[in-house]
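User: My instructor asked us to take a sequence, write out its structure as tokens, and then describe one feature of it. I'm not sure where to start. Here is the sequence I was given:
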Amino acid sequence: MPESVPLHCPACRREHVYTAPPYPCACGAPSAPRLDAAAGPAVLAHRAWDEEWVVVRCAACGRRNQWPHPELGCPCGTVLRIPVAGTPSPGPGHRAPARSAASSARDAVTAAVLCLRRLGHRDIRRAGRRPPGGIGLAAPGLLVRVDPAGRPATARDVECLWLTAMTESADCVYFSRAGYTGAARGRADALAVPLFALDRDGTATPVNGPGRDLAGPGPA
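Assistant: Let's start with the prediction itself. The structure tokens for your sequence are:
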């Protein structure tokens, strides 16, 4: 069960309850960081790439995974970095997995999460409803499908994501490691679904009009 801790924003004193989002380990088990309830959150004033990661040990298989550091966006505009217990950051000189390769489900999810954070989305977690394929993520008002498979996403894949988002009155975004078929791109344009391709180095690149509109100028 995901771990939750109460906390307050140092800027506006608003109270929050933060739940650590689980991510899928390579073994298939959900893996989430242990939160430090005794320490208060830190205000994130600037970002450093090496500080974006924490090491999380999978309770099922013992694998040490690297996940994005937990964060919470307060309605006042402050971004809070949630303290994590007993999970050191990878440290200086570490090459983060989202930059080194998007060769696994873990790396694909990490790349998608970092892209979404750069686009302003917070409280990203695993979606409550599992998609027909790939990995489902969710943020407030947003559903995301991350497809690490070796085949291009199809028009049906795009439609399934869009329909699920419609039932939850949410926007949606699709990330695919192997790209998209021509029919999928056409359907996504018609439904205004942003599409992102995960490059070999883990960079999320918008590949259709809605995706470029969402990403804005510059890289996502």
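For the description part of your assignment, you could build on this observation: The longest strand covers residues 142-147. Try explaining in your own words what that tells you about the chain.
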